Amino acid sequence: MQSVEKTIYVKAPIDVFYRVITDYECYPDFIQEMVRVQVLSRQAQQVEVLYVLKAVIKEIQYTLHLTEQPKNRLSWTLVEGQMMKINEGFWNLEPVSPTETKATYHLEIGLKSLLIPQSVVNTLVHVTLPKTMDAFKQRAESLVLNKS
Prior knowledge:
Layout: E1 2-10, H1 14-21, H2 27-30, E2 34-43, E3 46-54, E4 59-69, E5 73-81, E6 84-97, E7 100-111, H3 118-147
Antiparallel strand pairs: 1-7, 2-3, 3-4, 4-5, 5-6, 6-7
């Protein structure tokens, strides 16, 4: 299992950034590796979402159970996944000012097979994750710019 936590500062109000991270089905519009996202069920702040991600060696399909805590937190646990045995984490959002948000992303990931090279996990955690966080940041900041 590998764990990573990263914090970014986003020039967007907290409600805008929260809207971006909870607009699951739009992820393929701005995350290069995301092939498809489908909301399977929603009951209040409990959401089950299917993701198809283009990974280093192939497409990976997995389903997460997400818990939305409006405006400041989004957490998840793995329901099922082809290669994953663990995928849990959270986004924690804090307002820095009315126009800036501190966004902390925490992820714990573990793969099912020991036959999967550690380099795949390292690429997911240390290359794909920063690119993905940057994509969320750019998306939120572009929404603010387009609103002006």
